[in-house]
Amino acid sequence: MSPFTVANSIGLSLASAVRQTFVRERPETAARVRFRALRALLLAAIGAAILSTGESAPGAHSRSTQVTWAGDVEPIIIARCVRCHQARGFAPMSLASYHDAKAWASAIRTEVLSARMPPWPAAPGFGDFSNDAHLSATEIELVARWAEGGAPLGTPAVKTTADAPARGESMHIALAPVIAAAVERRVALPLVSDRNRWLSAWTFEPGDRSLVEEATLSVNGVAVGSWTAFDDRIVYPRQVADRISRGAAVGLAIRYRKTSSPVVDRSAITLYFDRKPSRELRHLVAGCGRQAFDRDVELLAVKPVAAAAGDTIEVVAFDSDDAVTPISVVSRYLPEYPVTYRLRTPLHLTRGSRVEIRSSSSGCSAQIDYVDR
Ligand code: HEC
Question: Which CATH class is domain 169-278?
Answer without folding.
Answer: mainly beta
